[in-house]
UniProtKB/TrEMBL annotation:
The lineage of its organism: Eukaryota, Viridiplantae, Streptophyta, Embryophyta, Tracheophyta. ATP binds at K99. PANTHER family: OS07G0668900 PROTEIN, SERINE_THREONINE-PROTEIN KINASE PBL27. One of its GO terms (molecular function) is ATP binding. This is Protein kinase domain-containing protein. It comes from the Eukaryota.
Length: 341
């Protein structure tokens, strides 16, 4: 099946400045603003030798922005805490504010890792960090506001008055996500998101996708190293099998997770049910006569047959059980650019 679509590598040039080769800083210095101050201050959050600027907001400023974290401003809730929409009067800016529960599963390490990563990464397909607040035992992160919410909310359990995503929009979202991963993987050192899933893909105007939630992100292998060893973290149904078994994290582990997201876009199915999405889809992908049974029924047959075939080829390559047989991310981008055009 892999011969049906050619995945040609395109040249990716990475310019590395000398001062970007320094060893990663293990500590994040966060200023402690007094609660009586109405002004935010800038703090330096170093990572990989690169200083970055983030706004250090007071807790009161963010409470005012979200109407004291009112249920009316609630955008989402998870094991980490809650996300609220807010309006910063000082900057006249609509933002999203993540407020960690004090007993959150996302601890200090994940909180500071997210700040470190987003402070130093900049790409159209990554959510932008506006600032943060670490005041007493309160920990909050402020992001740009993404008005269309998560991809997950556009694929699953749609209310009757909500239109499903059309095929072309799905492929453009897949392409944008792949471009975000390409940027991360071509960093020096590479960055592995480690929790790629539809609920961590946020959509802006025109369904422009951005990767979010970098609390579990890790720096990838450098030089002759083939992997980094970590605790197994992530979400069941998206994690690569070899990573689940060994804790060895590679760039190809994330290619597998992307393959699950692409399959989710094609099928409209959740990654975990009676079986995982991959277990359900794998035998069907091998039989061309069964391709139509893989498509999201909400599309009502409105998809290009050739485009479906090619998208399934890409997903099958990404989901190969042997990680060395999965494509590089720039190959995936190249194929999806063709499908989204």
């Amino acid at each position: 099946m892999g011969g049906c679509l050619s995945l040609k590598k395109k040249k990716v040039e990475v310019v590395v400045k000398e001062n970007e080769k320094k060893e990663s800083s293990k500590e994040v210095q966060v200023g402690n603003s007094g609660s009586g101050s109405d002004k935010s201050t800038s703090v330096i959050v170093p990572v990989d030798g690169r200083p970055a600027i983030g706004e250090n907001f007071t807790y009161q400023e963010l409470a005012d922005a979200t109407t004291n974290f009112s249920p009316d401003t609630l955008l989402g809730q998870g094991g980490f805490g809650s996300v609220h929409s807010g309006f910063l009067k000082r900057t006249q800016q609509v933002v999203a504010v993540k407020k960690l529960d004090k007993d959150s599963a996302q601890g200090d390490e994940e909180y500071f890792m997210e700040i470190r990563m987003l402070s130093n990464l900049d790409h159209p397909n990554l959510v932008k960090l506006i600032g943060f607040c670490a005041e007493g035992d309160e920990k909050l992160i402020v992001y740009e506001f993404m008005p269309l919410g998560s991809l997950n909310n556009h694929l699953h359990d749609l209310p009757s008055d909500k239109q499903p995503l059309d095929w072309n929009t799905r492929m453009k979202i897949a392409e944008g996500v792949a471009k975000g991963l390409e940027y991360l993987h071509k960093e020096m050192p590479p960055v592995i998101h480690r929790d790629l899933k539809s609920s961590n893909i946020l959509l802006g105007p025109g369904y422009h996708p951005k990767l979010s939630d970098f609390g579990l992100a890790r720096l990838g292998p450098e030089g002759d190293k083939t992997h980094v060893s970590t605790r197994v973290m992530g979400t069941h149904g998206y994690c690569a099998p070899e990573y689940m078994l060994t804790g060895r994290l590679t760039l190809k582990s994330e290619i597998y997770s992307f393959g699950v997201v692409l399959l989710e876009l094609i099928t409209g199915r959740k990654p975990v049910g009676d079986h995982t999405l991959v277990e359900w889809a794998r035998p069907k992908i091998k039989e061309r006569k069964d391709f139509h049974t893989l498509v999201d029924p909400q599309l009502h047959g409105n998809y290009p047959k050739k485009g479906l075939h090619q998208a399934l080829v890409v997903s099958e390559l990404c989901l190969r059980e042997q990680h060395e047989n999965r494509p590089e991310i720039d190959e995936v981008v190249n194929a999806l650019s063709f499908l989204a055009s």
